[in-house]
Amino acid sequence: MIALRSCLTFRIFPESRFIASSPTIYTSLRFRHSRTMASKASLKRAEDFVDFLNASPSAFHAVHSAKLRLEKAGFTQIKERDAWSSTLQPGGKYYLTRNASTIIAFAIGAAWKPGNPIAMVGAHTDSPCLRVKPISKHTGDGYMQVGVECYGGGMWHTWFDRDLSLAGRVMVKGADGAMEHRLVRVNKPILRIPNLAVHFGSSVPFEFNKETQLYPIAGLVSAELNRTGKTAEETKKAEGEAEKDADFAPLKATSQRHHPYLISLISKEAGCKPEEVLDFELLLYDTQPSRIGGLNDEFVYSARLDNLGMTYCTVEGLIQSLRAPVGGDDSIIRLIACFDHEEIGSTSAQGADSNILPAVIRRLSCLPAASSSSASESSEGSYEKVHGHSGADDLSTAFEQTLATSFLISADMAHAVNPNYSAKHEPQHRPEMNAGTVIKVNANVRYATSSPGIVLLQECARRAKAASFQPPGAKTSAGGVPLQLLVMRNDSPCGSTIGPMMSAKLGVRTIDVGNPQLAMHSIRETCGTHDVEHGVNLFESFFEHYGELEKKVLVD
């Protein structure tokens, strides 16, 4: 810096930055400044994604975050228990939830008719985690500990020595006796799973017992006694008397099944008294926020990228496809479904293997067409006329007709090539981050992808809006987003998704895709910042163009 001052003069610019008067240096810095501004513009989508991640520590919170975005975009909530015939109208936008952890949203085309297609994107809201046991109160060697249960196939060794806390939902007794569902999130670190020091001969590779050595530490028994001002004997006596004097209850109170101060923290977050906490479903989450990183801001570092990465792209893709006014000739339904419990097999009332999506499609497939003459005229190219059908009032096969002409994109994160384990990847199929959404293929149908789906998605990608980030030499500056292909090695296991399950259940044509990431199922994962926009733009294009493209991909 001193040597630089000795040979160059400086001028103060309005940006309050020092720029060398040398024309070469000034030009170089100006170029770098413009590149920096361009990169900031290309990170807007990733920054919004990071906000979504930080607001969604559990599946319940993820659905709540999606609801807020959908409502802001003009979607109206409906309920499964209500009749829809008088509520749903062509041109309308609606969403519903089940268990507050699964959400389905859809927009009905103005020219919709019974039996027409539905363009669908499906994802899942859950991620591997540790969940608090129904009776979690545990102490050992002077520590207060919390019993947890493994949910899904997590890389549990990555949960050691992390600053952990709790999030999920609590069932609360309301003032009028009603049992209410409330979201809670303890924002400070209160739990930690300690590693065994290397001096004790800890195992390499790292091995541990998930039942006995995965107990998070919540505090010290002595510190809790100091807080309450009672001795251990006094505390035990008071608990015994309280249990003796209590009325009959089928289960012990939550303050008896869990550490009382833990219940106190939870009740504070839920806005109720400790005794009003009836039960809860709480999971552990890493309090380290999601953030953008890398030398050139090319990565997103976060928990739960699998599968909040594709949940975000799914929700935003639908919303973005409706930003501009949709023409009166739109004869399809655009639908997204984000399910819970994919990580444990989807066999639940709110999982992808439940009846929720078939039930919604059945109700939508029979939805009456718009009654206005303008809608009738604009739908001359609808599926009844294009495919030679007549008798618009015959709804007996509308459900089957809709399934036969619909398409599902199963969106679940994919594996990027790991440079430290490159031999684990098939040599010709090595997805790179920030190089586009990945099409996943498996000959044994662990993924539901087939050639017609690849052809259709390629056309959607070709018609997609250009991403803000354009690498040197890119051919997509005028439009289009890149795609990649993934096949696992023959000597390697292959995961699966909701794709094969849904395609078998519905008989709907399906393709499996996902944005590439590293360290899937770790407590801390990595994906590309620019792939977020790639995914959103791809799904936006799918929703916008499927009605036209479906008629061009003819396979019976």
TrEMBL record:
GO terms for cellular component: fungal-type vacuole. One of its GO terms (biological process) is proteolysis. Residues 382-391 have a biased composition (Basic and acidic residues). Coiled coil: none annotated. Residues 372-381 have a biased composition (Low complexity). It catalyses: Release of an N-terminal aspartate or glutamate from a peptide, with a preference for aspartate. Belongs to the peptidase M18 family. This is aspartyl aminopeptidase. It comes from Neohortaea acidophila.
